[in-house]
Amino acid sequence: MIFHSGSIEEVAAELSTDAVNGLTRQQADQKKQKFGENKLREKKKKTNFQRFVDQFKDVMILILIAAAIISFAIAIKEGDIKEFFEPVIILLIVIVNAITGVMQESKAAKALEALQNMSALHAKVIRDGSEKLIDASELVPGDVIRLEAGDFVPADARLIKSVSLKSEESALTGESVPSEKDAKAQIAQDAALGDRSNMIFSGCSITYGTGTAIVTATGMDTEMGKIANLLDSETETQTPLQKKLAQLGKYLGIMALAACAVVFIVGLLNGIPVMEIFMTSVSLAVSAIPEGLPAVVTIVLSIGVQRMVKKNAIIRRLPAVETLGGASVICSDKTGTLTQNRMTLVKGFCDGMSCTEEISTKNSDEITKLLKYGTLCCDGSVVFTDDKEQHIGDPTETSIVYAAHKSGMPKDDLNRQYPRIAEIPFDSDRKLMTVVVKMDSKIIVIVKGAFDMMMSRVVSGDTDMARKINEEMSSSALRVIAVAYKEIDYTPADPTSEELENGLTFMGLVGMIDPPRPEAKTAVEKCRKAGIKPVMITGDHVVTASAIAKQIGIMKDGDLAITGRELDEMSDSELDSNVEKISVYARVSPENKIRIVKAWQRKGQIVSMTGDGVNDAPALKAADIGCAMGITGTDVAKGAADITLTDDNFATIVEAVQEGRGIYANIRKVVGFLLGTNIGEVITVFTAMLIWHKTPLLSMQLLWINLVTDGMPAIALGMEPVEADVMDMKPKPKDEGIFAHGLGLRVALQGVMFAVLSLAAFVIGQNATGNVSGGQTLAFMVLALSQIVQSFNMRSDHSLFKIGVFSNHKLNWAALASLLLVAAVLFTPVRIAFELVYLPVQTYLIGLGLTLVPVVVMELSKAFGLVKHQR
After folding, report:
1. Mean pLDDT of all residues belonging to the chain
2. Nearest to 808 by CA among 687, 666, 674
3. I want to staple 508 with a disulfide (CB 3.0 to 4.6 A). Which of 245, 350, 640, 661 is the partner?
4. How many CB atoms lie within 10 A of CB 21?
5. CA dist., res. 738 & res. 720, Å (int)
């Protein structure tokens, strides 16, 4: 059937559904088995074999494999079985590293998939006659869905009811302007996609109005599914930090090749056999490249993202993790983020009264009538299941609906008794919502909305008293909603604001409060301590907003609170000169939000902005960190944001910033640890070749240290708990590099320390045994163990004994595993393959002494301020 040209009745019959009550649960289950999940075909995932092959695309790994192949060729030619050990060990280590890489990538992919599932779209569907919120993937053809401004369209559907409905379809049709929709439109069979105004399409979004529709196609059968292959262009992106580290790897590679060339020339001039020089050069190349660094950084980011999920923040884009650590301004919505988002109706006032009345279950007839009219003009609903209440929709509306319910007037009963026959949805420009209902053979227009907007449309009622009561309520931090009405003779075919929202009779006011979240005040204090400026942005009255802001500490003495209108009157230069003094913006528009973000960014600040509406998407994109609300946020807002807050809580943003700082600090620790050890290895091999024309460490020994011994402590170091004083530091500037605050110099000095220890061990071991193998054995032992010790030193800029030597349990286990692996190579027959020998007991003891030197050096450096804690 061609759905856009058929009648609503024909479409419902074709899809075996009821346009009012929707499908039954049994029908939905049967259709799901037939049509499958409502999902587009996913991009083909890499197999583990493909991931395994990808591990060998790195230039340095290819160099190692080439060296191993050449070694094999030499061994075969010479026929000496001992010559096979080194190439076999190199290949084994490379393969083990590849397998580890595959396991890590698979784990990261699964974590990402889990995050995508957590941020999956939902749909409001009518099944068995009642509205439910389900995963969009559960939709089937025949389902009846409801949509409003801010929703993504979850499937192709034929409209059965629409009120001022507009859909953004540029992704499908290329139209730059939202398309107007009309459920009653008669469309020709051969109409182009963009002309099918009685249809809505999967992947598009609702920008205005409300609608109800019957799902006609799901998954790959939708119009979007038909062009899914064209949309399958998502590529894996690296974070800025990962790109910098990849660039660093290239520089290190160039340095290694230069050093190899010098060593090769020195070796040739001193008559060293070509094969021996070649393997020494390979050793140098191996020591220069931190093979495990990219994998470890990816794991640290992945673990950090998972930790944030546990704290109610879903990271949609990995670069946001890095940016979070530098957030210096947090612009937050008030309602639901700084407050509890459980609006409670506390006061009511009706025209003719002299004062307000407390809302209860036994109110006066006038207030009861006010609640009835207010509820009829609400789209929000309160659903009761198993003694639990679920507020669906705008909290302002659900507070009115809930108050009426407690007064014995359930919304469903009211809607049946007084059916809605027309409506004009709320929008942020009018700040009003209007419905037309049939009431006792009369046609009544009910309007509710902002007091200021309502008063200019009222022609009957005591507006002076209403204004006085409104000010009293607002000064008590109450949100005030005005209700007015009028009787009309007929229902207009195309209702407009000019026609219905004028000539009104003032009925009354309801006042509600959304109390601050208990944790908001503490979170604001933590922000200020961390050098972060908290800013409140709200659509509420400026008096209400200021009262809440003062209560939780956002607004201090001397701070300003301005309205959106006052902001509109400011030039950009005036805003720039005042932005640091303004703590509260009230009655703002989405355009105002963008100006606020840009003003702070011109000051060089990193700005986080919260948003929930479809109109907030541009501001969320403009901000350095866009935070969408997980509960009240629209699908469009979530799609534009970097982070989704699953609990809509300001404290969660602060927790996410703290976690972001911790992740960045841990990555710095890992980078410092791995580069420090690698630089030490380069200096060791290069210096020994220049002085003694021999290598203190073989390539397979260095590979074992780099990929096996160092890898586990590095990962565990990246899992270091966030330091307690991380929020005492100033935010990280935008252009700050990873080697800032002296990390680059410290890495170089640590490299020198490892080189001195390794060279000393080489000399001591060689003198104790009288051969090079003895020197290489002690150098291997000292370098491997001192690096394990150094992983503990890198945990903090504070003294290791202050934070607790063994307080990172994951590092303890990693260090123990690395220690056992080193011991296995030193004291079991495996040592033969690594060309290591047994040493005298006293030599081992000297080696252990050298291993502990990094603790002494680092503790003295920290004590005397050579290693300064960042402030």
Report:
1. 85
2. 666
3. 350
4. 13
5. 18
CA-CA distance, 576 to 7, in Å (whole number)?
57
Residue with more model confidence, 340 or 128 = 128
* pLDDT-above-70 percentage for the chain: 89
Short-list 43, 31, 202, CA closest to 123: 202
Give the integer Cα–Cα distance in Å for 797 and 68.
41
Looking at per-residue pLDDT, the higher value among 336 and 680 belongs to 680
Q: Do 183 and 236 form a contact (C-beta atoms < 8 A)?
A: no
* Helices 772-793/853-863 angle, 10° precision: 40
Neighbouring residues of 468: CB distance < 8 A, sequence distance ≥ 6: none
Phi first, then psi: give them for residue 777, nearest 5 degrees.
-65, -50
Report whether pLDDT(4) > 50. yes
3-state secondary structure of 402: helix
pLDDT at 231: 39
**What's the average model confidence in pLDDT over 497-511?**
95
- 819 by Cβ neighbours in 10 Å (0-12 / 13-18 / 19+) ranks as middle
The region of weakest confidence among 43-47, 590-594, 640-644 is 43-47
Instruction: Give the C-alpha separation, 227 to 360, whole Å.
Output: 56
651 neighbors 318 (Cβ within 8 angstroms): no
Task: Give the C-alpha separation, 166 to 164, whole Å.
Answer: 7
Long-range CB pairs of 259-266, under 8 A, 24+ apart, other chains included:
259/284, 259/288, 259/682, 259/686, 260/284, 260/285, 262/686, 263/685, 263/686, 263/689, 266/689, 266/690, 266/693
Q: 145 has which bridge partners? A: 125, 213
Tell how strand 479-488 and strand 533-537 pair up. Answer: unpaired
Residue 745, number of CB atoms within 10 A of its CB: 11
Separation CA 632–CA 191 (nearest Å): 37
| Per-residue tokens: 742 | 């002296």
Query: Hey, which residues does 144 pair with through a beta bridge?
Result: 126, 214
User: How many whole angstroms separate alpha carbon 671 and alpha carbon 294?
Assistant: 10
Q: Render pLDDT for 854-871 as a digit per residue (tens, 0 to 9).
A: 999 988 888 877 665 555
Catalytic residue, chosen from 333, 394, 642, 710, is 333
Give the residues across from 474 on adjacent strands: none
Query: Alpha helices of 338-378 — where are they, by DSSP H?
Result: 365-376
pLDDT at 179 over 80: yes
What the block records as the tokens of 233 is 């262009």
Is 714 or 84 the better-scoring residue by pLDDT?
A: 714
232 pLDDT band, cuts 50/70/90, is: very low
SS3 432: strand
Tokens 């075919």: give the residue: 493
Q: What is the dihedral of CA 699, 824, 780, 63, to 10 degrees?
A: 10
Q: Could you tell me the two tokens for 205?
A: 């979004």
Question: What is the Cα–Cα distance from 857 to 863, expressed in whole angstroms?
Answer: 10
Q: Are 338 and 521 in contact (CB under 8 A)?
A: no
CA gap 596, 590 in Å, rounded: 10
Residue type at position 384:
F
Helix axes 542-552, 520-529, angle to 10 degrees: 70
Q: Is the pLDDT of residue 299 over 80?
A: no
pTM: 0.69
Residue 333 bears catalytic tag: yes
Quickly count: other Cβ atoms within 10 Å of residue 52's Cβ: 16
Query: Which helix H or strand E contains 198, and what residues bound it?
Result: none
- How many CB atoms are closer than 10 A to CB 733? 13
DSSP state of 362: S
Predicted local confidence at residue 421, as pLDDT: 93
Residue holding tokens 């942005």?
537
Residue 648 has pLDDT above 80, yes or no: yes
Burial 410-448 (b: 16+ CB within 10 A, else e): bbeebeeebebebbbbbeeebebbbbbbebeeebbbbbb
Are the C-beta atoms of 407 and 371 separated by less than 8 Å? yes
379 backbone φψ class: left, alpha, beta (φ>0; ψ -120 to 50): alpha
